[in-house]
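REQUEST ID: PR-0412
SUBMITTED BY: lab tech R.K.
PRIORITY: routine
TASK: structure prediction, single protein chain
INPUT:
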Amino acid sequence: MSSQVFDDKIPHGSWKRRNTIVAAVAIVAGAALSAALYVMAQDPRPAAMHMADGSTAAAPGRPATEIKPISCTPLPDIPGKAVTVAVVDFPPDAYTPRHRHPGNVTAFVLKGTLKSQLAGEPPMTYTQGQSWFEPTGAIHLYAENASKTEPASLLAMFVADENCGPLTIFLPDGHDGHAN
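STATUS: complete
OUTPUT:
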């Protein structure tokens, strides 16, 4: 499945349905953001622990993104899997290089404008209220804050193994995402 803007999935003329869906997503995102702010105030763990190698990554001279996990909940009807929810903050001009995730990811832009590209797909620009999907193992070539002056953030929902391990696995340029 390719990454697409949510608006592309709603037939034109279905404004009542669209507004209901947008309102529901906004309520969920608002609740998740509130929970994230509460957890961040309570949780002393560094965001970097959610990277596969314990590091953060950014292009030289550019700020790195910060991943702030909110929750990791096992899925009772899918043994061995869990939903992890995290807020990813992009300071102005922040950049995340080539990486993949250990499970399926849906990203929802909470604020700002983000540029992103998955391998084999064109670069995309997403603004507040838009979302995209990344299937398990997809190579995410980059994600960056489109603004050099304003922060951006997204809500990421992962469905992966229930061990709640690393959420981002950085890859060297040209790496296909598979272990050697």
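NOTES: The domain at 6-170 is CATH 2.60.120.10 (Jelly Rolls).
REVIEWED BY: pending
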